[in-house]
Amino acid sequence: MTQLSRRGRRLSPAFGRPPVRWIFLRLLPLLFLVGPAASAADGAWDLPSLLAALSRQSLSQVAFTETKTMSLLKQPLQVSGLLSFSPPAWLEKRITAPVDERYRVDGDRLTVDRPSGGLHQELSLSAYPPLWAFVESIRAPLAGDRATLERFYQVSLGGSRRNWLLALVPREPEMAALVRSVQIRGNEDRMRELTIEEANGDRSVLQIQWPR
After folding, report:
1. Which residues of 161-177 are buried (b: 16+ CB within 10 A; e: fewer)?
2. Please, is 130 exposed, middle or buried when counting C-beta atoms within 10 Å of its C-beta (0-12, 13-18, 19+)?
3. Worst-scoring range by mean pLDDT, 49-63, 173-187, 192-206?
4. How many CB atoms lie within 10 A of CB 112?
5. 80-124: per-residue pLDDT in tens?
6. Region for residue 158 given its phi and psi (left: phi exceeds 0; alpha: psi -120 to 50; beta: otherwise)
7. d(CA 93, CA 91)
8. Which residue in 210, 166, 150, 177 sits closest to 7, CA to CA?
9. Rounded CA gap, 65 and 81, in Å?
10. Which tops the pLDDT comparison, 73 or 34?
11. Closest by alpha carbon to 183, among 171, 172, 169, 202?
12. What is the DSSP string of 24-84?
């Protein structure tokens, strides 16, 4: 299997597209996994309030469906699966349909598994600075780390506790080359919808199915 270059430019036959871009976009929704934490105290609904709710997370798992519109496809592509997070450093996105794929981050290690294709790949994040920076931007919000979040994104939060919108615009050029913006909609301490606008015009919408 072809190995990743340090800049993520070489192609892997197992992926069929630039691996860093592919892994980046598969992992991105993990940044916005919000579980059933206690609501922030009554008062203004602002970024510190949202990050405080995120930082109170314990192990959380929710189902999702993701619809991706691509210029290369005549019809939108839909996948479904599970999102999981356990503080301070464990993240997983598992796609269960139409194929079985897993993307797991634990500390400095990123593991990618696709059983149907016999793929098992492990990376040290410290060896790939763009991926490392991206993963830290995932873990920082879940840890309530506003300084790190704003290091990587221009952040704005609008709306109210019952109907909020978090907008993120990448600051880092290598991230901005992949993603133009991210919009997350939710209510209280639950995310309901995540929209990713890619730099090439492609778009994906991820919806959370919370248990009743």
Report:
1. beebebebebebebbee
2. buried
3. 49-63
4. 21
5. 999 887 777 788 889 999 999 998 988 889 899 988 888 899 989
6. beta
7. 7
8. 177
9. 7
10. 73
11. 169
12. HHHHGGGGG----PPPPPSS---HHHHHHHHHT--SEEEEEEEEEE-TT-SS-EEEEEEEE
What's the chain's average pLDDT? Answer: 76
How many residues in total does the chain contain?
Answer: 212
Give me the residue spans of the domains in the chain. 19-209
Structure token digits, residue 62: 């929710």
CA distance from start to end of the chain = 43
Structure tokens belonging to residue 143: 């840890």
CATH superfamily placement of domain 19-209: Lipoprotein localisation LolA/LolB/LppX (2.50.20.10)
Q: Which residue has the tokens 């059983």?
A: 115
